[in-house]
Amino acid sequence: MKERIEVSFRDFLGAIQAALLYGAGHPIVKKAIEKAHQSITDCLTEKAELTIGIIGEELAFEKEIFFDLSKLAKPGITYLKDRSIEKITFKRGFQLVELEKFIVFLVMPKEDVKKDLGDYLKFMGVHNIIAGKVGVVSKAAEQALQQALDRKGLYEHSLEEISQPLIGILNREAIDGLALKLAINNIVDKLGTQYQQLLKLDTLKRYDLGTFTHLINVSILSMYFSSKIGFTKEIVLDIGLAALFHDIGKLYISRKIIRKPGQLSSMEFSQMESHTVLGSALLLQYIDTLGIMPVVVSFEHHLRCDLSGYPKAAFPKKPHIISQIVSICDTYDALSARRSYKVDYPPDMIYNLMMRGKGTTYASSLLEKFFQLIGVWPIGSIVSLSDKRTAVVVDENQDDIFSPIVKVIYPEKEEVKIDLKGNKDGLKIERYLNPRREGKDFLHLI
Length: 446
Ligand SMILES: [Fe+2]
Ligand SMILES: [Fe+2]
Known about the structure:
- Residues 190-386 form the HD-GYP domain.
- Pfam families: HD_5.
- It comes from Candidatus Sherwoodlollariibacterium unditelluris.
- This is HD-GYP domain-containing protein.
- It is a single chain.
- By secondary structure, the chain is α+β, with helices and mostly antiparallel strands.
- It has three domains: 2-135, no CATH class; 207-374, Hypothetical protein af1432 (Orthogonal Bundle); 382-445, no CATH class.
- It is built from 19 helices and ten strands.
- The strands form two sheets. The protein has a five-stranded antiparallel β-sheet, sandwiched between helices. A five-stranded antiparallel β-sheet has the order 9-8-7-6-10, with no helix packed on it.
- Helix 7 (139-152) crosses helix 8 (154-170), helix 8 packs antiparallel against helix 9 and helix 9 (177-199) crosses helix 10.
- The longest helix is centred in the middle third of the chain and has 23 residues, at 177-199.
- It starts with a helix and ends in a 14-residue tail after the last strand.
- Residues 135-142 and 201-208 have low confidence and may be disordered.
- The site of one fe (ii) ion has 6 residues, from helix 10 and helix 17.
- One fe (ii) ion (FE2) binds next to helix 10 and helix 17.
């Protein structure tokens, strides 16, 4: 089905291109429109209607975003967006003549378009094609979205958008897979420039909303990590989606057990371990919407590279690379978060703790790459330098993960950055200042 839809999208955009090149009445255009009509009609044998969505720069259909096609069809997409068309629905039984009229309208010079699109189509007797804006990406909505982001911050906004489907799954309701994918896509688009704000690796993480926060943190961190090691955007999205649900099974386990500060009894421990199996069983019901990776990752994220973790499978097999990525990000977030039952560890301690699992719990190369990207002291860490000045980490040095680039914030707020790598004064980080305790007084300076 996916291929047929892709073909029909391509043919439809091809017909628009042809009409723009040759003018609406040309025989080549007629042929192209016939071809598009045929391939769309083919798709409509299985579905009562077919909706093409244009979200941002991408073409979308239901839960699918057609990245590759979007690249090819960029001129067509820009053209439609320019005419405020972000959604086109073809209904079963639509006629060739309707498509012709629609395309004539599409290629009309913008200034000749006096009527509203809906009115025009009705006026021309086109009843089986509906075109217009998709609510969420209209100009007004885009502005509202921006305002919401400014007000709440990107992180809180993303948390809100993603919480809905999570709750939906817990209630075993149907969820809007495409909306979820777009919410994640929105995050991926911002990872390049605003990942600091999104990752909340350190100073900004002043919230403890429990498992939900953990799920979104792990999702964002996994997407950041996987995009930096070269996965395509499409796979990064799948990784984000899988990571988002890795601990969904925990929401079925008694909070008493999850939050217990001391050691768990063997009974409690096996209940805790069951979150992997519970989660994957639940996610199996959402394969059509979310794909198979959330099931795999939920099942494997505590398995460990040497298979010494859990659950014990009948036919043990090394965890999938995506499970391995999520597993690293999972532990990193769990160790850095403060919970009612545990303190938040300083970053250098997290590094040392995780390095103990190098080659056993985690694949060596993957773990090393992770710390090269995140650094021992993640961006945003407030640190005390060896000359007693206080600074904030602003960038990492991949070839010297202990010596990032910092900006002094106290005693004098200097805008100057200091690269601690090979620093000639021998300046180094002496101590981490926890933003909830000794670092609290410096928060307003960063
Ligand atoms: Fe887990
Ligand atoms: Fe987790």
